[in-house]
C-alpha cells in the first residue's frame, strides 16, 4: 500500500466532527504545527452528539483490557493539564459494587497496579460507614478507585474547540456531505453540504454515530447506534448526601440490570443525581431519533433508587437525556487509515466508553498523521472485516 510519507512540514488537515475524538484530534494536530480546520454539522457536544449531555465518567478500571487502562491514565494526566482550575474535571473517585462475581474488580486492581495506579478493595463494613446513603444489602464486595471521577461533557467539548481557535486553528459550523466520495477526498477535496469544496492534505473523520452514513459500505455494518436513556433525579432540599464530595461516582454490578451494570454520578452544580443503565437500548438514527425518555425506563431507574439509594425512592425526575452508544461488535475503538485512501483517517466506535479518552485519542491521531506511526491493530478496520467497496482501491494499491 502506497502511503502519504512526504507530508509538507505543516500539512493542511480537516477534521470532521467536534466531539471528544475530533475536537482533541484537531487540538493535538494544531499543537504539533498542522494547519487545522475543524468542522461540525451542529457544534461541539451538541444535543445529538455522543459527546453531548452534562457528564461522563473517567476511570481506568477496565478488567484485563490493559490498553484502555493505559489510555485512560494518560488521558487523566491530559485532562488535569487542560483544566488546572478544575472546572471540567471532578476527581471524586469511583465506587465499584459487585453482587457475586467480582473478578473484574480483582483483575482491574492488578492491571492498575502494573500501571502505577490503584483500585482498593474496601470492606462492606467500611463502605457502609463511609456511605450511609447507600443500601449495600445485596452487595458482596466493594472497590474504590481514587484517581477517577467525572467530566463535564458538553462544556469540555466547547472548551477544546475554543482552545483550538485560541491556538490558531479554525472552526467552522458546516456539514460534510454524506456519503463521502472517498476518491475525491483521496485527491484532497471534500464536498460540503452547501456544495462548496474544502481542500486539505489529510482528512480525519471523527463523526461518531454518523460514521456509518459517511462510509455506508465500509463502516455501516460495523457501528451500531443504540438509544441510551439518562435520568437526573432531584435530592431533598439541603441534603448533601447525594452530591460530591459526600458521594463519589458509582458503578453497580450487583443490582441486576440487563447489562449487569447501572452507574451514576453525584449531583453537582445545576444537574441532578444521574442514573443510567449500561445495557444497550434499541437502535436509533442519530439525526432523526426522538430524544424523549420512556416511562418504562424511568420506572426501572426509580426501582433501582428504591433498592440502592432508598432516600431517593420518591425523588422527582428533574431532567433527562437520550444519547447513543456507537458500538463496534467487540467494543474496541476504530482508529485507522482508510484502506484505500492513505490521506484519510477514521476515528470512532467509542462504544459507550470513549469520552474520557479524547485527549489520548487526539495525541495518538496526531502521531499517526504527522509521524506516520503504525496504527494499533486492536483498533484496526481490518479486524472488523471492514473493506472499501468499489474498484478504485485496486488502482491505488
Ligand atoms: C449515555 C452515554 C453515556 C456515556 N458514558 C460515558 C462515560 O461515562 N465515560 C466515557 O468515557 N464515555 C462515555 N460514553 C461514550 C462517549 O460519550 C462516546 O464514546 C464519545 O463521546 C464519542 O465521541 P465522538 O467524538 O466519537 O462522537 P460524537 O461526540 O458524536 O462527535 C461526532 C461529531 O461529528 C459530527 N458530524 C457527524 N457527521 C458530520 C458531517 N457529515 N459533517 C460534519 N460534522 C459531522 C457530529 O455533529 C458530532 O458532533 C457515553 C455515551 C453515552 C451515549
Any overview of this molecule?
By secondary structure, the protein is an alpha/beta fold. The protein is built from ten helices and 19 strands. An eight-stranded mixed β-sheet has the order 6-7-5-14-15-16-13-17, sandwiched between helices. A six-stranded mixed β-sheet has the order 9-2-1-12-19-18. Strands 3-8-4 form a three-stranded antiparallel β-sheet. Helix 1 (20-31) runs parallel beside helix 5 (153-166). The longest helix is centred in the first third of the chain and has 17 residues, at 66-82. The termini are close together. The relative contact order is 0.19. Residues 1-5 and 390-397 have low confidence and may be disordered. Residues 16-22, 39-42, 46, 49-51, 56-57, 175-176, 178, 206-210, 228, 230, 276, 323-325, 348, 350, 352-356 line the site of flavin-adenine dinucleotide (FAD).
Would you summarize the structure shown here?
By secondary structure, the protein is of the alpha/beta class.
What string, H for helix and E for strand, traces the elements in order? EHEEHEEHEHEEHEHEEEHEEEEHEEEHH
Q: What is the gyration radius calculated from CA atoms?
A: 21 Å
Low-confidence stretches: 1-5, 390-397
Q: Tally of extended strands? A: 19
**Helix percent band:** 25-40%
Shape category: globular
List cofactors, ions and other ligands: flavin-adenine dinucleotide
Strand content: 15-25%
Q: Distance N terminus to C terminus?
A: 5 Å
- How confident is the prediction overall: mean pLDDT? 94
Largest sheet: 8 strands, mixed
Strand order of the largest sheet: 6-7-5-14-15-16-13-17
Helical segment count = 10
**Derived structural class:** alpha/beta
Amino acid at each position: 500500500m502506497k502511503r502519504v510519507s512526504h507530508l509538507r512540514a505543516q500539512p493542511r488537515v480537516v477534521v470532521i466532527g467536534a466531539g471528544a475524538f475530533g475536537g482533541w484530534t484537531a487540538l493535538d494536530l494544531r499543537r504539533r504545527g498542522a494547519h487545522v480546520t475543524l468542522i461540525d454539522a451542529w457544534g461541539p457536544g451538541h444535543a445529538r452528539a455522543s459527546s453531548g449531555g452534562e457528564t461522563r465518567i473517567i476511570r481506568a478500571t477496565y478488567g484485563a483490557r490493559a490498553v484502555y487502562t493505559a489510555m485512560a491514565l494518560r488521558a487523566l494526566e491530559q485532562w488535569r493539564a487542560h483544566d488546572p482550575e478544575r472546572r471540567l474535571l471532578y476527581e471524586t473517585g469511583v465506587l465499584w459494587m459487585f453482587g457475586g462475581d467480582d473478578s473484574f474488580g480483582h483483575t482491574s486492581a492488578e492491571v492498575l497496579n502494573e500501571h502505577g495506579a490503584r483500585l482498593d478493595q474496601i470492606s462492606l463494613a467500611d463502605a457502609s460507614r463511609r456511605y450511609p446513603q447507600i443500601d449495600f444489602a445485596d452487595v458482596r464486595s466493594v472497590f474504590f478507585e481514587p484517581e477517577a471521577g467525572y467530566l463535564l461533557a458538553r462544556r469540555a467539548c466547547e472548551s477544546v474547540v475554543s482552545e483550538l481557535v485560541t491556538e490558531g486553528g479554525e472552526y467552522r459550523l458546516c456539514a460534510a456531505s454524506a456519503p463521502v466520495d472517498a476518491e475525491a477526498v483521496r485527491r484532497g477535496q471534500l464536498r460540503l453540504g452547501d456544495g462548496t469544496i474544502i481542500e486539505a492534505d489529510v482528512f480525519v473523520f471523527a463523526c461518531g454515530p454518523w460514521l456509518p452514513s459517511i462510509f455506508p459500505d465500509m463502516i455501516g455494518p460495523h457501528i451500531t447506534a443504540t438509544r441510551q436513556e439518562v435520568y437526573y433525579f432531584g435530592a431533598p432540599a439541603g441534603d448533601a448526601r447525594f452530591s460530591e464530595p459526600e458521594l463519589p461516582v458509582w458503578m453497580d454490578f450487583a443490582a441486576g440490570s440487563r447489562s449487569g451494570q447501572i452507574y451514576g454520578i453525584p449531583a453537582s452544580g445545576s444537574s441532578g443525581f444521574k442514573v443510567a443503565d449500561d445495557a444497550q437500548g434499541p437502535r436509533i438514527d442519530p439525526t432523526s431519533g426522538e430524544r424523549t425518555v420512556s416511562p418504562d425506563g424511568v420506572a426501572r431507574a426509580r426501582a433501582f433508587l428504591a433498592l440502592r439509594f432508598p432516600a431517593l425512592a420518591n425523588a422527582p425526575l428533574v431532567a433527562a437525556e437520550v444519547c447513543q452508544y456507537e458500538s463496534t461488535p467487540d467494543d474496541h475503538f476504530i482508529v485507522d487509515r482508510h484502506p484505500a485512501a492513505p490521506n484519510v483517517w477514521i476515528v470512532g466506535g467509542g462504544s459507550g466508553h470513549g469520552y474520557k479518552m479524547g485527549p489520548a485519542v487526539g495525541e495518538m491521531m496526531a502521531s499517526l498523521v504527522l509521524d506516520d506511526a503504525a496504527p494499533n491493530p486492536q483498533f484496526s478496520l481490518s479486524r472488523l472485516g471492514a473493506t472499501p467497496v468499489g474498484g478504485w482501491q485496486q488502482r491505488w494499491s
